[in-house]
Write a structure and sequence with these properties.
Layout: H1 10-25, H2 32-37, H3 41-51
Length: 73
């Protein structure tokens, strides 16, 4: 079936644009929530590597990026 020259797909393109832009923007963040966290990777890794050996195993969730609070804060 041919729709001719008057057919366009602007409505569909506008509906999927946020998904396409998000996919590009979140490429290195994992998700939008991860992108919003804005953790400084260098400070995070430095702090975690210093304290990981002495950190309690039952509190390991404190060291994931979304819950992390720097030791010197």
């Amino acid at each position: 079936m041919c729709f001719g020259a008057d057919a366009d797909n602007n409505l569909l393109e506008n509906q999927i644009r946020p998904i396409a832009l998000g996919r590009k923007n979140w490429l290195f963040e994992g998700s939008k929530r991860g992108a919003d966290a804005k953790v400084n990777p260098e400070a995070y890794l430095k702090d975690i590597l210093i304290r990981i050996n002495s950190h309690a195993v039952n509190k390991i969730d404190e060291l994931i990026p979304k819950n992390w609070v720097p030791l010197n804060k």
